[in-house]
Each structure stands twice: as C-alpha cells, then as structure tokens.
Write a structure and sequence with these properties.
Elements (H helix, E strand, L loop, with lengths): L10 E5 L3 H12 L3 E5 L15 E2 L16 H5 L6 E2 L6 H13 L2 H27 L7 E2 L3 E5 L6 H12 L6 E5 H7 L9 E5 L3 E2 L2 H14 L3 E3 L7 E4 L2 E4 L2 E3 L1 E4 L5 H5 L9 E10 L9 E3 L4 E6 L2 E10 L8 H14 L9 E10 L6 E4 L5 E5 L5 H18 L14
Parallel strand pairs: 1-2, 1-14, 2-10, 4-18, 6-16, 14-21
Antiparallel strand pairs: 3-9, 5-9, 6-8, 7-8, 11-12, 12-13, 15-18, 15-19, 16-17, 17-18, 20-21
Helix pairs in contact: 1-7, 1-10, 4-10
C-alpha cells in the first residue's frame, strides 16, 4: 500500500515510548520530520523495560513454531510450564490460540521466516546508525553468547532449529563445546551443564538504559515526549489527525499489546495478544561476560550493570492481569538448575511485561487503510532486536509514501 494521496508530513505523533515507538520517532527526525511522542505512562514502562535485552537477529524466528505444540494441553495449563495458558473462556484469547496453533506448522514457519529475514539482516546496522547519530548508550558484543544444556541430546532441538533457519537463507554462526569448556568461558554455569552452543556475532544491551538514551536523543534533536498522557483518542480529518485536542499531519500507533484495540478502526484485524514475560535481577558470584540461555527451560540471563537479569516464560493472558508469583517461582526453579553462584533468594526488580504477539509470529508495520495512520508493533519477543530496523523502514514509508520491500511481508492489513 502507498500513501501518495497525501503530502509528506511535517509533524507526526508517535503513540508509545518503547523501543519501537522511539526508534520510529528518531528515524522520522532523520528525514526532517518534527515528532511528538505521546506515552500513556513513562518511557520504557512497557515490555521494553524488563526484557533480556538480546540483539540476536540470527536466531530471531517466529514464535509460532511446530515445537510449541509438543508441550501438550497438560503442560500449558501448568503455571510451572515455560508456556502457560490459564484456563479461560475469553473468546478473544481462544480465537488467538486457535489461530496460533494453525500457524505452528513447518510450512507456516518457513513463510514467516521469509518475511523476517530482511528485517533481521538490517537489525544491527540500525543500532549502529542510532549510535552514530548521537544515541549515547552502546550495544555490547555478546562474546560469548552461550546456550547451555544438561546433555548433548537436549541440544539437538536448537541445532535442528539452526538447520531450519539456515535452510531459510539466514546464517547462524556457532560452535558446540562440552560443559568444561563452557564453564571455562562462563563460570556462572553449574556442573549440571554437559554441553553448550556458543553463538557468535550477536550483541546485547541494558534495555531501560538504552531506551532512555534513545528518548534523550529524540529530545535533544528537537522532539517532544509527553509522558503520563493516559489514553488519547485518535481521530482523522480530511486535513490531518487529532490526538486528543492536538493536530498532526500523521500518526504512528506503537502501543504494544494495545495495538489491535487502537488500530482496529483503521482496518487492522490481526489480534495482538499479550505474551507476558517475567524477569528479575540478582547478584551472582561471577557475572557472565555475555548472555546465557537455557533453551530447554526457556530462561534468558543477561548481565545488566553489576547484576544478572533472569527473564523468561510465555504467558498468554490479559495484558492487565496481576503478576502471578508462581511464574516467578518457576523462573527461579528453572534458573537454579543450571546457574552457579546466583543469589536467587535475594531478587530485585521483579517484573512482568506484556510482549505483543501475533498468531503468525510476524510484526505489524506499515500503513493502514487511512493514509495518515501507520502502525508499528506485534514484534513478540523481538521488539528490542527489531525495533530500530522497523522504525527506520516505517519512517521511510511515512515520508515517501512507498512501502519498502522489507516491510511487504509484515503489512498490517495482511
């Protein structure tokens, strides 16, 4: 879809001050557009705040994959399961789950991978552009990025996933080592670790620090960020867009797990479901040099300052539901199996965040039926990794009216 029916905008409102919204605002500024970012609460207050902070485009894949269905009904109904779906009669959630299950096939996964690869290929370059352009936070080399397992047999599922990724045309650089070699690199791994896969050429960030630096850069370049704005109605007119009582030439909806609610009136019919993740930070006797991943347990560990952030779990639940302490307990139990020296009983910053997930595992980025309204969201677990590259591509579309080839597979009207 193109937006050549209206002139290039001079002033754009961006709703949402997470990684996706702020990246879009920053790249709009690169193209000479005045921006106002409107955030219902605070910068990075949503899923940008407490996630693992991985920048791992080589392994950014659709959440809807065949292995998810192997958990079985009994597993997903357990609050200890890495993937948890509480018993529900919510018709919207049940509809999402049915659509999600239909996409958990190899054929659908391959199709979605083809749409993700162009975004993955540009992900790290977009971070480099932010840094060159004045964002003061820095990405850090994940050297090493370690995926650890109890046994070599346990590692086969991830190695098979790498085969599928490479068959799709995306490269994964890695090597396999035994537990002793892995512990020499990362003493935070326990004696239970029998084998590990070291993934090369990846990076990581401290998410809230990076997003705060991105917000500071938007402001320094003349942008306005309005926090604690609450929900503001969006109304289009023949000459512009009203957000509350203020007029803009165009608007970008980057409201995370609320995106489908906000974009439905503009023709976006895909369900955005909150895939809630949990995290906390702990002190650890020896801080890992890079991210550590326990794929079997679905637990992600990342150095954040002088502590280790432990994150994980996928909980399909209402975005506003209270934090479930059983999910924190499950994360503690799973992490304690393969970490050494982590003070798991002295947790800080316990958090739950609503990752915006789509049934096909692809984000929604681009123009809507209204040529003045654009959307950016639905990245699932990859909002940090792909936020800047999708923001750069969307800024191009907003200004030029042309859809970049890399956005065709994530058309929000698909």
């Amino acid at each position: 879809m193109t937006t050549d029916r209206v002139p290039a905008p001079d002033h754009v409102a961006v709703l949402g001050a997470g990684m996706v919204g702020l990246s879009t605002a920053w790249f709009l500024q690169e193209r000479g557009v005045q921006v106002t970012v409107i955030e219902k609460s605070a910068v990075a207050a949503g899923s940008s705040w407490g996630n693992a902070g991985w920048l791992t485009p080589s392994i950014a894949v659709p959440l809807a994959e065949p292995s998810v269905l192997r958990y079985g009904l009994r597993a997903v109904l357990s609050p200890k399961s890495p993937v948890y779906v509480p018993l529900t009669t919510d018709p919207r959630l049940l509809r999402f789950l049915a659509q999600f299950a239909l996409h958990c096939t190899q054929r659908h996964w391959q199709r979605s991978m083809q749409a993700l690869i162009p975004l993955n290929n540009g992900a790290l370059d977009a971070f480099d552009q932010l840094e060159r352009g004045g964002v003061e936070a820095r990405t850090m080399a994940a050297n090493p990025f370690t995926a650890a397992f109890r046994t070599a047999e346990d590692s086969q599922a991830l190695l098979q996933e790498f085969e599928h990724i490479e068959a799709s045309g995306q490269r994964v650089a890695f090597d396999v080592v035994d537990g002793d070699v892995a512990r020499k690199d990362e003493p935070a791994l326990s004696e239970e670790v029998g084998t590990a896969i070291r993934i090369r050429d990846e990076r990581f960030i401290n998410p809230p620090a990076f997003v705060a630096a991105l917000a500071a850069s938007v402001r320094a370049r003349g942008g306005t960020i309005i926090e604690d704005a609450g929900d503001r109605a969006v109304t289009t007119t023949p000459t512009g867009v009203l957000v509350g009582d203020d007029r803009y030439d165009a608007v970008v909806l980057a409201t995370g797990a609320w995106l489908d609610r906000d974009a439905r009136q503009y023709g976006v019919r895909r369900i955005i479901q909150a895939g809630r993740g949990y995290s906390f930070t702990v002190d650890i006797d020896e801080l890992p040099r890079g991210p550590v991943y326990f794929p079997t347990q679905r637990v992600a560990c990342t150095p954040v300052g002088d502590r280790l952030r432990i994150a994980g779990m996928m909980e399909f639940r209402d975005v506003g539901a209270p934090r479930d302490p059983r999910r924190i307990d499950a994360l503690v139990e799973q992490a304690g199996q393969l970490l050494a020296g982590a003070h798991l009983d002295e947790r800080h910053d316990e958090w739950v965040g609503a990752r915006p997930c789509t049934a096909d595992g692809l984000p929604l980025v681009g123009a809507t039926r209204d040529p003045r309204v654009f959307v950016a969201g639905g990245h699932g677990m990859w909002g940090i990794t792909l936020g800047p590259v999708t923001g750069r591509l969307l800024a191009e579309q907003v200004v030029t009216g042309r859809t970049p080839d890399a956005l065709r597979g994530v058309d929000p009207l698909r």
